[in-house]
Design goal:
The complex is a heterodimer of chains A (564) and B (96). Chain A has 564 residues and is mostly helical. Chain A is 72% helix and 2% strand. Among the domains of chain A are: 237-481, no CATH class; 492-563, no CATH class. Chain A has helices at 7-19, 25-44, 67-86, 94-110, 115-134, 139-170, 183-195, 203-208, 214-235, 240-259, 263-284, 287-318, 334-347, 354-368, 372-398, 412-430, 432-436, 450-472, 489-532, 544-563; strands at residues 52-55, 58-61, 482-484. A two-stranded antiparallel sheet of chain A has the order 1-2. The radius of gyration of chain A is 32 Å and the shape is elongated. Chain B folds into two domains: 9-38; 50-90. Chain B contains two helices and one strand, in the order ααβ. Chain B is mainly α and 96 residues long. The chains are: A mainly alpha (564), B mainly alpha (96). Chains A and B meet through helix 6, helix 10, helix 13, helix 14 and helix 15 of A and helix 1, helix 2 and strand 1 of B.
Chain lengths: 564, 96
């Protein structure tokens, strides 16, 4: 009976109900239970017919359930549960409500069978999630949230424009595989690209995620970008352009992540890098690569949430997530440190951890399709992941030099959320077939071959060796309180500066123009005055006789013209 | 928490032992490549100890490249605004 409702409605209704529950344990429990119920409904429901609604001339499908949407639906429900468990201690109304609406919107978009439904949920994810940034309640967070909202809503507007053109061109609103060969699909592609943090469209990610609340960032990290990956996998699988975009995404964030001081920003860059792997998988578009994308999205959501949780727990206890102010926290936060190490091992793709079994599908996909250069980039990016997420985050937070801080261990709900996530990360790594069983296509791949384990260990261990040697030689980038300019400089500094200068220029032009106009007008009036004024030629007093003579001459001239 | 496994490595000698064990592991991994015939997608992959060398060099490139990046693009925390999130501490130590 429950299964008659589309899945996102459970979240939306749950969110609305949560407003009326008094702050406290019951409210926190309620927001944790909603995703669990939704997950059970998804797994046990009969969705063959979908959930179709007539809207004007169109039949909208709220529940297009197939293997691809199911795998994203499942992980979104799990992420919502874990995120809400991590935020269990909150005693406020906004964030639990927003967390449910936001995750519900993302799930709604995943199951959308048509582009109109997709657009509605696409915008709802933007409008709801910004409150997780504003909940920080500082001026900086407000401005960051505004930038986030503008870019996210822009993505929705571009999508709407693309959908309208698509309908005009094809007469269909079905959300199916598209070819990137028309203006309509180009707009849709760009809309997906904004949310997926394509190069030059990516800065909203590094700007907003570190600006959100401790718990908000954990929720944010799971949905928006992976929704975009899903949308690309659904709409543009096998689009070669995505391979190169994805490869670029895996590379450039590595360098930024390495020198960023705010560890949540490091993780945001790292997220960008991981999205690159998934986008490459979509671009390759073979069954193996698409399985890789889905599997990597699944395991990525978990280990990235785990890393954001552990840094969040540190931020919660110490008030800072700056590498320059942290260090030596393993003494008093050992469990958080261990969970962070598990997240780090998972993202670095150590054998027996989740990243190992998912990333290798994409790498093999690239190898099998003979993309040598791309494959080399992906191997390079794997070493890069280790450098910032695998080593930097745990090392500078929990080890390195002693910051003198002795915070208490994270609250029990945070430990529980981190512990559960860590267990799932290891479970997936040890028993990959459970993950592979969820994939859109049949997986005929065994990650645990001797040579795969050997080569991966060689790559990782020698990268760590380089780290140890460079550390001894004091060549690692120092931890200083600083930021690094990225492409957002163009719209945060250059564009405002340019527009200001342009306005100033226009003002000067206007003033000069006005002055010139006034001067010309004055000259003209002076001339008119000289001609028509009391002393002017035109107003000289003439006698009647002169005028009669003048008219007679004119008449004679006219007569002459007529006669001859 | 009373039992803390991470404190075990606080002692310099134990940490050194851990490092030595790691170096031995690296050495073994390096040697193992002699005896393993790997299935490869590309010719370059079949180079002796390709992964070890590539991992080591690429990691070093990342470190030096990022230092160069900071040299070019590094700015103070309050570059964008006085009250930017970059330069503020987390407000109120979370909502308790």
């Amino acid at each position: 009976m429950l299964a008659t409702l589309p899945l996102p409605f459970y979240f939306l209704i749950g969110g609305l109900v949560s407003i009326f529950i008094p702050k406290g344990v019951f409210k926190s429990s309620f927001v944790c239970v909603v995703p669990v119920i939704a997950l059970l409904v998804l797994l046990n429901g009969d969705w063959d017919e979908g959930f179709k609604v007539q809207f004007l001339d169109h039949k909208l499908n709220f529940m297009r359930v197939d293997k691809l949407s199911t795998v994203f639906g499942i992980i979104f429900c799990i992420a919502a549960f874990l995120g809400n468990l991590f935020a269990f201690h909150l005693r406020e109304s906004t964030q639990p409500f927003i967390a449910l609406i936001y995750s519900g919107a993302a799930i709604g978009a995943v199951f959308a069978g048509d582009l109109i439904t997709l657009f509605v949920y696409w915008e709802l994810t933007a409008i709801s999630s910004v409150f997780l940034i504003w909940a920080r309640k500082t001026e900086g967070a407000y401005h960051s949230g505004m930038r986030y909202l503008i870019i996210q809503v822009l993505s929705g507007v571009v999508l709407l424009f693309g959908v309208a053109l698509f309908y005009f061109e094809t007469g269909s609103i079905s959300f199916i595989k598209m070819d990137l060969n028309s203006l309509a699909t180009a707009f849709i592609f760009v809309a997906f690209g904004i949310k997926c943090a394509f190069p030059f469209l990516h800065n909203w990610l590094q700007d907003s995620y570190p600006s959100a609340t401790v718990t908000g960032t954990v929720i944010l990290s799971a949905f928006t970008t992976k929704l975009a990956v899903y949308a690309l996998a659904r709409g543009f699988p096998g689009t070669e352009l995505l391979i190169y975009i994805g490869a670029a995404m895996t590379v450039f964030p590595i360098f930024f992540a390495e020198v960023e001081n705010d560890l949540r920003k490091v993780l945001a860059y790292s997220l960008n890098n991981q999205l690159g792997f998934m986008v490459v998988g979509v671009g390759i578009g073979t069954e193996l690569a698409l399985n890789g994308t889905a599997a990597h999205a699944f395991s990525h959501i978990l280990y990235k949430a785990l890393l954001f949780m552990s840094v969040g727990a540190v931020l919660f206890r110490t008030g800072t997530s700056r590498a320059s102010e942290l260090g030596g926290l393993y003494r008093t936060m050992p469990l958080t440190a261990i969970f962070c190490l598990i997240g780090a091992a998972s993202i670095s793709a150590f054998p027996l951890f989740s990243g190992f079994v998912s990333k290798s599908l994409i790498m093999s996909g690239a190898g099998k399709e003979h993309y040598q250069f791309i494959w080399l980039i992906l191997v390079f990016a794997s070493a890069g992941v280790l450098s910032h997420s695998g080593i930097k985050v745990p090392y500078f937070t929990f080890f390195h030099h002693d910051s003198g801080k002795r915070p208490n261990e994270a609250p029990i709900n945070m430990l529980l959320a981190m512990g559960l996530t860590a267990i799932v990360c290891i479970f997936i790594g040890v028993f990959p077939n459970n993950l592979y069983a969820l994939m859109p296509f049949e997986v005929k791949y065994n990650p645990y071959t001797f040579e795969h384990i050997l080569t991966q260990l060689q790559l990782l261990c020698f990268a760590i060796l380089a780290f140890i040697i460079l550390s001894k030689l004091r060549q690692l980038p120092s931890e200083t309180r600083s930021i690094n300019l990225d492409f957002d400089w163009t719209y945060r500094v250059f564009l405002p500066f340019f527009i200001l200068k342009l306005l100033l220029f226009l003002e000067i032009v206007e003033q000069k123009g006005l002055k010139l106009f006034n001067k010309s007008l004055q000259l003209f009036l002076d001339k008119v005055y000289r001609v028509s004024g009391p002393e002017g030629v035109m107003t000289r007093i003439l006698t009647s006789g002169t005028m009669v003579l003048f008219i007679a001459i004119v008449l004679l001239v006219v007569l002459g013209i007529i006669l001859f | 928490m009373k039992f803390n496994p991470l404190i075990f490595f606080e002692k310099a000698s134990r940490l050194r032992a851990l490092l030595v064990a790691f170096f031995i592991l690296c050495f073994c991994l390096f040697l193992t490549d002699f005896f393993v015939k790997r299935y490869v997608y590309f010719e370059i992959e079949s180079t002796y100890n390709f992964y070890s060398i590539y991992g080591f060099i690429m990691f070093s490139i990342i470190i030096f490249g990022s230092r160069l990046l900071r040299l070019l693009l590094g700015r103070p925390e309050n570059f964008y605004a006085k009250k930017a999130v970059d330069s503020e501490d987390y407000p109120g130590m979370e909502e308790k």
